[in-house]
């Protein structure tokens, strides 16, 4: 790491820990204009400037702070990188690019050389002020400082920056076919690098990729130089072997394994037939050992076979995945949570981690041949060689169990509640209705009206008490008779 970049890391130690602000992310678009880029500026059919504008438009929002810079190598009066413009959003990029031409060494006619390390370092310590941001580089991939024997060493510096510098948290590369013919040179291809400086920039770059607008401009999948210790593989489910009642599928995000099951047909262990897919484009996983775990579960998640050999980028290997469902966390059909679902699905999110140890990666032969075709004899293509220090990686696999609960418990409980309400209504009606009963008071017949759960004191014509009767829901009963009096139910 250069002294300037090491200084930038020290200054940015606090700022890189801050979360991505709602105001957007800063992005720099570095366009190479050294001598080796001559055909991209002199060929009338060149699409270089149009590509830069389109990428800036697709990768940014109106809230992003953008910097447009031309880079070659500082020499005499030639300053690199040179700031062409800055501002919010990409609306002004095309106008700022229009007058850009080739840079020259000092005041002479010799075309300028190229220094990638200088361009990246000075962008971070200059316009970025050592704060997190995305650096885009548009280049013919020729790093030629001073056009002398230092080129190989400068290439190694750039390699270390891309792969090993911890402040560069994510690196994507797009190898594009763009044939141009100039007066001095010709070229077949153009390379576009996207470097995330700091974790907020890596998260922003992930978001830009996920939104899909960039893929409409850069239509080919990017090569991922860094990180090569994350998201190595994904599991693509095919079927559940041990239960016809559990259905497996892949979620819309392309990562989540979704299991659909009826609550009454749950199986404690799932045996899943699946494919393990290499997500390390453009790398072949020559060898790795697979381990897996399920977050929060004592029982392991087993993947077999547990070895990967010669798995090409994008290719898949059939595997069997076994894991236990957390039955204690799954609500009973009679639970409050299940009843509240009203016969719909209850979601049980889980998370698995798949790790590769003893990982050995190699550049895909097909991709290597393509690089040689686009950039013949170009030593900087060695930046695609994965570092030997990365021997392990991990991938997070979201797992979602969607449990379909039956309507029967809901219907039964709803019916019971309705019956109870009806009973209360009937009880209320009965408790307010009076009924006529026949009594014999001291031998004389008499009729009285009496409501449920009410008492009535029976008196003679002179107002003297004869006795007391009381009614429940049924017929009344005599509860007291005064001495010397007679009272009976007729």
Explain this structure to me?
- By secondary structure, this protein is α+β, with helices and mostly antiparallel strands.
- Helix content is about 20%, strand content about 35%.
- The chain contains ten helices and 23 strands.
- The strands form five sheets. It has a seven-stranded mixed β-sheet with strand order 3-2-1-4-6-5-7, with helices on both faces.
- Helix 1 (about 5-10) runs parallel beside helix 5 (about 115-125).
- The longest helix has 25 residues, at about 410-430.
What is the structural class? alpha+beta
Question: Compute the gyration radius: what is it?
Answer: 40 Å
Helix content: 10-25%
Largest sheet: 7 strands, mixed
Average pLDDT rating: 85
- Termini gap: 113 Å
Low-confidence runs: 1-22
Total helical segments: 10
Q: Quaternary state, please?
A: single chain
Strand content: 35-45%
Categorize the overall geometry.
elongated
Strand order of the largest sheet: 3-2-1-4-6-5-7
Number of strands: 23
Give descriptors for this structure.
alpha+beta, disordered N terminus, 10 helices, single chain, 23 strands, 490 residues, seven-stranded mixed β-sheet
Task: Show the helix and strand layout.
Layout: H1 3-11, E1 26-32, H2 38-42, H3 48-59, E2 65-71, E3 82-88, H4 93-97, H5 116-125, E4 133-139, H6 151-163, E5 168-181, E6 186-197, H7 199-211, E7 223-226, E8 233-240, E9 246-250, E10 257-262, E11 269-278, E12 283-294, E13 302-304, E14 307-311, E15 316-324, H8 336-340, E16 345-363, H9 365-374, E17 393-404, H10 408-432, E18 435-441, E19 444-450, E20 455-459, E21 465-471, E22 476-481, E23 487-489
Parallel strand pairs: 1-2, 1-4, 10-17
Antiparallel strand pairs: 2-3, 4-6, 5-6, 5-7, 8-11, 9-10, 11-15, 12-14, 12-16, 13-15, 16-17, 18-19, 18-23, 20-21, 21-22
Helix pairs in contact: 1-5
